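Kindly draft a polypeptide, keeping tokens residue-aligned:

***
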Amino acid sequence: MTDLTYLDNGFYITLIPNSREGEYIYNTIANEFNGVGVFPSHMKASIFKQIKDAGYKIRKAKKPKKIDWTDEDQKLLEVLGA
């Protein structure tokens, strides 16, 4: 089982815990980065090496599917002010 997945937007890495062990390592990292599991991309190699050396499994998250909005969806969003 993968403990953590991550998203990489080119500037920042966002961690997503997938297990109890993943929550532990997420919280450990978040404590070092102002309470969130997000850190600059240039630190990726070092942090991922530490995660893997500690025995955790990490992989890149799948890209979210594109949402095709219907006209009704768009009208609802307008009513809701979104």
In short: The chain has one domain: 4-80. The mean pLDDT is 90.
